[in-house]
Amino acid sequence: EELEAKGINFTDRLFISDRAHITMPYHKILDRVIDEKRGKGKIGTTGRGIGTTYMDKTARVGIRVCDFLDPEVLREKLEIGLQEKNDLFKRLNSNHHLDIESVMEKCIRHAEKMKPYVVDTSHMINEAIDNGENVLFEGAQGTFLDIDFGTYPYVTSSHPISGGACTGIGIGPTKIDKVIGVVKAYTTRVGGGPFPTELTGELGDRLRNAGPIGEYGRTTGRPRRCGWFDAVIVRQSAIINGLDYAAVTRLDILDKFSKIKICTGYKYKGEVLGRFPPLLKIVESCEPVYEEVDGWEQDTSGVKNFEDLPLNAKGYLKRISDLTGTEICMVSTGPERDQTIILKDIWRP
């Protein structure tokens, strides 16, 4: 409705999976209450109810879109879910209490709006691939927020790695022919969790506030933590995702730095580690091993040809490509779509 009010009509191309799980009002409340109760172990969630929705999904008491559209099934599931959640609110000393009739009324209203867009998206996507159409899957968040391979417990509740496309969409792995990893020319993180290359003080602020949009969370508005490029985590991401290529974004943010550092490894108890340790206690004790390169101190915003980039910018891109073992296929030099350098035409068979 917000988009259509601005003259953007896309709803004829919007489809919602009939098997997707619904975030209910109690999921959002629980998300905030549980994270507050963790005290110093607080994860720093967005408070949007994502983790608690996945808790119900895994516990097999979640409400899917197909359930949501059937009032009889929805009521049965809400009777179980609301009794459980209201009891949980009491045990957590929360004053929240949700009434089934008010929740049902709201759900039915939303279900009517949602119904025209609900389809079997797995069948639709597989059919498109079988018909030779180009299909692009875009993952949210990042590899190190993956529930299995990320900086657990400072992770999301799903699989934003490339393999998650298969389980999340319902396609076989043989139907994915190229994997592109999107990585910034430096490193950022929102919320808690380890960050070996994090920059604090004036240098961190310079990275965060450079460029036209700055580094602030799109969901929460929280300032992102910023640091130098970490080749250790990108190299590990390349392995986990099976990357064919990397797309490097926000190169222009580094335009005004005379010296730029690249993390090539972590030093722990005198030993240099080339891989990201699974135990966060070790990560928190690691010192990043840096390689310093000269910056280019020239404006690259809007450059569209690789040849037009400053020599040191080209050298920086080549170095991070070598360190991560991943060929770079494109580079962005600004927030607009046309501020992109295409190094390799990867879309043709």
Short description:
The protein is an alpha/beta fold and 349 residues long. The chain has helices at residues 2-5, 25-37, 50-58, 65-68, 71-91, 100-114, 121-130, 164-169, 201-209, 231-241, 280-285, 311-324; strands spanning 16-17, 118-119, 180-184, 187-189, 225-227, 229-230, 245-249, 259-268, 271-273, 287-294, 327-332, 340-342. The strands form 4 sheets. Strands 3-7-11-12 form a 4-stranded mixed beta sheet, covered by helices on one side. Strands 6, 8, 9 and 10 form a 4-stranded mixed beta sheet that branches. A two-stranded parallel sheet has the order 1-2.
Description:
This protein has 349 residues and is of the alpha/beta class. It is 35% helix and 15% strand. It has a 4-stranded mixed beta sheet, with helices on one face. Strands 6, 8, 9 and 10 form a 4-stranded mixed beta sheet that branches. The protein has a two-stranded parallel ribbon with strand order 1-2. A hairpin with a 2-residue loop joins strand 8 and strand 9. The longest helix has 21 residues, at 71-91. The chain is globular and about 65 Å long. The model has no long low-confidence stretch (mean pLDDT 91).
